[in-house]
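Hi R.,

As promised, here are both runs. First protein below:
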Amino acid sequence: MAVLAIAAVSTVLVAQQTPPIAPPTSVAPSAPLEEVKLEEVKVTAPEPRYVAPTLRDRIGRIWAPVTIDGKGPLRLVLDTGASRSALTPAALNKLGIQPDLDRMVLLRGTTGSARVPTVRVGQVEIGDLLAERQTMVVVDDAFGGADGVLATTALRDRRILADFRRDRIEITRSSGERAPPGFTTLRIKLLDRHVPWVEAMVGGVRVKAVIDTGAQSTIGNLALRDALLAKRREVDPREEGVIGVTGDLQAGRSMAAPAIQLDKIMVRRARINFVDLHIFQRWQLRDEPAMLLGMDVIGVLDTVILDYRRRELQVRLVDR
């Protein structure tokens, strides 16, 4: 079983004070756990443009290069948990277009809902996908200076490859190819026909783990918290509040998590922030253990491939 060690992390959308992120280390299945060591990471490469790993001083991100009406590319946060793509007012200025204030829609975010304006665009190009006559919502913030959010609702037959070590993203039509050598394959199921989730085990508790590349930190529901507390005491508790794209704040409480097992991959030294999120109710995941697996965990991998056609998450660990 492959093991990842990942230390406590924070997010710019979470109100808290935490120590710096410790870089993860992966070891071969035969290596004893006591030999896992955290090493100092020195970042000497240029700032990533599209795929940023999770390091000591930052949470990883996946940005997709998107061309709108022939202009761009814009950097949109790839959000596998989002149902609507969005642009910021600053992005609209770059494109020279105005929002349609007469056409408001209800945006349902992670923490709540809000009425927001929309904008209509002629063409959206993402990799080899060309979508015409698209309506996007307008949001004030898009995660740390990005131009917006790219939902994956239009990528149902696509293959998304994010290479964290080489700052590379590919979005192509899936040809149904198997995972490359050295990758671990996880079967995915879909919520709302587009949100991927996998089976996971956390401290002996079976969990539905939603793959949410738009979430900076891993968030569990209260059913998972209660199941874990029935087995173990709370470890290193911290009060945390989560702010979603709609601007709503929800209070939460995080703790050091037991091992998170994803098939043959074991993630250690992670934190889970437990929040009664609005999105858990919408997805009907309040009554069973569930969590959003955020970029604090996803970003410590080497490469992630999400193949919607094959219904697979293919991952490769960082070689150490």
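And here is the second one, sequence first, then its structure tokens:
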Amino acid sequence: MANTAVAASTPFLWEGTDRNGKRIKGKSLANDEAQVRADLRRQGVVPTRIKKQSKGLFAGGGKITTGDISIFSRQLATMLAAGIPLVQAFEIVGSGHENAAMQKLILAIKSDVEGGSSLAEALSKQPLYFDDLFVNLVESGEQAGALESLLDKIATYKEKTEAIKKKIKKALTYPAAVLVVAFVVTTILLIFVIPSFEDLFRGFGADLPTFTRMVIDLSAFVRAKGFYIVVIVGSAVATFLYFRKRSRPMRHFLDRMMLKTPIIGPILQKASIARYSRTLSTMFAAGVPLVEALESVAGATGNIVYETGVLQMRDEVATGQRLQQAMENTDLFPNMVIQMIAVGEESGSLDEMSGKVADFYEADVDDAVDNLSSLLEPMIMAILGVLVGGLVVAMYLPIFKLGAVV
């Protein structure tokens, strides 16, 4: 039912008058014009004009990102806190969303809720966008009569985890992007610029410096074998990405290697601990049993090494082991984290202490990423200088020698 609604929904622009006779206009999502009229009448609006929203030349279905889900969570929490009924909140949030795919998703959930499904049931029909953790928290909120509070916790959790992900992406993407640019510039110089100098040097009738000769030979190799190099490298990268996505042992090996990488490794470790603590705090505050919470926490750590460790902890806690001892057995958590969790267990404030650990490590990741960026900038400039500057020097060495002879 939900999937049909997603496929069939259409944005409509409308104009009408409210209960006070004031002219208003807006946008609604519906399967047809009749549904728009019915929805408006329920809201006390008398429609005078309804038309389908025309699609721009480059308009498309759009793509739903984790950021969209995070914003949706906060908007829904804010609407409910303001006393707006759930169905009307979906209508308002969906109508105001610029992403067509997100609009359709919201309408699908709204249709299920109007059909009598609970919010948790409606969300569970969209597993691509709402994971077990999200659905379990919403279900706990509905059962406890505290949906507004739980949605606020979910929104905060999503915002915190999204911030951590963006920080990690920033730390890894910036140097990678600069190195790719350096590689492209170097390739262009080798293919198009160096051959021009080679023709010039051929008329000198003298031996070229060794460094210049090496660069010219490298240029000739790239021009002769460049296509094969691209095919081999492209195939290797595609094969690597294929097996990385589908092979759990390979993912485990790569994630473990990343954790051991200097500079980057400690940041990834802190990020995983921050996600672990934030998720544990949110789940436990929602009243989810610890064993069940750890299963959701495992998938939220973002690293398969920590995921495996948390699942091991879940099995040990299920047999009566204390969480503190189970964490020690994994050898993945610093002593400070273990001791704070131990204090939380003993004082009955595990959610609060987990939240404090998450706050500390999230701030630590922010500082580490900022420091990494400051450290990498001069290093990257040096690499660019050596690559591009080295090629330039190699090409001008014979000219300098010729000038010295003259």
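A quick note on the second one: Residues 260 and 339 are 24 Å apart (CA to CA). Let me know what you think.

Best,
J.
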